[in-house]
Write the structure tokens for this entry.
Amino acid sequence: MLGTLSRPYATVRDQPLALRSVSMSEFRLYNTLTRRVEPFAPVDGSTVRMYACGPTVYNPAHLGNFRTFLFEDLMRRTFALYGWDVLQVMNLTDVDDKIIRKAAANGQTITQVTEPFTELFHQDRRYLRIQDAEVYPKATEHIPEMIALVETLVANGTAYVADDGSVYFAIDRFADYGKLSQLDKREVRAGARVAQDEYAKENAQDFALWKSAKGEDEASGAAWDSPWGRGRPGWHLECSAMAMKYLGETFDLHAGGIDLIFPHHEDEIAQSEAATGKTFARCWCHGEFLLTDGAKMAKRVGNVATVVDLREQGIDGAVYRHFIFNAHYRKQLNLGEDSLEQSQAAVRRIGTFARRLAEATGGTAALADAAKRAEDAFRAALFDDLNAPEGLAALFTFITEGNRELDAGGGDVAALAEARRVFGVIDGVLDLVPAADNTDGELAAWVEERLGARRDARARRDFAAADAIRAEIVARGIALEDTANGTKWRVG
Ligand code: AMP
Ligand code: ZN
């Protein structure tokens, strides 16, 4: 979009490959399967195929849900910084018990319930600058894939059909059951919630792959034909079917909040691996909870806050991003009354520094040195199990040192360009410049000045300099197009 400025600096994904410096340092992630921080790399060496469990779209996602989605945003942006491409799938659960109950209560169809909340989810995540996943599949649009998966499981004997036409997965027939949650099977049976009342199972812990339709399912449009009669998919099944459709039978990484480890992810593994005989996700990553006053933020606890609350209080999405990234994703984080004040001050400081960098005309050699140190420290922190708090510390050290050097003045244009580039790299991951500091006019003036310098460089046949200026512009999220009538530019 010409003239609109959603993001002043490029994400690394937007940068040409040549600008992505592939680090020699190893990428490490905590894998819930092994309970260890381990080296991580996509199996094909270039594209991280990742699946993240998305929202159930029957009410507004709360800030706790968004902690998890921000952790996944941090993940994909960090992968891109490392030099990998990302193929991220996030499902939208648009058929489930809660949706059907709400539809029945309102005399609506499930689609009437889920459509507005799907739209709201996307609005909210854009407010928090969460990058688009490559695919947002809806459960209701993948019923044939789910039925096919159940058919495979029935055929190989790991699933059975109950008298009412529901289909269950028999956990006793899958030897690896429990490997993710690391619960002994007996413990699983004794400890888990048992909802035997609704459906007839052989074993209390067997889970539903397919649920036979009841009156309210039919009335709300939540029933489909299947080999076992009218019914609807179980929640776990949808993730397995859609993950394998878009990412393949084996893919690199599966993420979600920590509450999904059991039973949801355990059951995804069981039904997928029992069907294919192959490893489902190679690595499992789970983010810790957001708490309010010490309790998990959750609808049923009644302590939720939403993105709409942030908007109404004039709190920039960058502020919430800072608050989340200032804690390690594997630590619990409490959102209290004044929690966001410190983050507000922090992003203000970042925004001021961004503006100073944009307005400066030169720097010092020490500015370039500070930038270099910041980039190294930032990469090392993020590539070590996504240590965003340490990454933020590197950014603030850079801001302190950078401000000191900018105060000193200096006419070193290359040093300034280096500082801007590094700031762009860091902010391409964290994305913390408040919208108020993204002024179109300033950016336009800067781009025009740089394009002039590039024309001059070309005129004197200094193509290395011209290319460097181009990279500098692109690093700030500007797309350039050379046409017969000169160079056109636009943001993003
Ligand atoms: P749901 O819509 O309930 O399926 O949740 C969507 C995502 O939000 C899942 O990955 C959950 O694990 C995650 N989630 C739910 N509550 C919280 C919380 N309080 N803090 C962090 N993540 C959460
Ligand atoms: Zn899932």
In short: The chain has three domains: 32-301, 346-437, 441-491. The first helix runs from residue 63 to 82. The two ends are 8 Å apart (CA to CA). The CA atoms of residues 122 and 132 lie 9 Å apart.
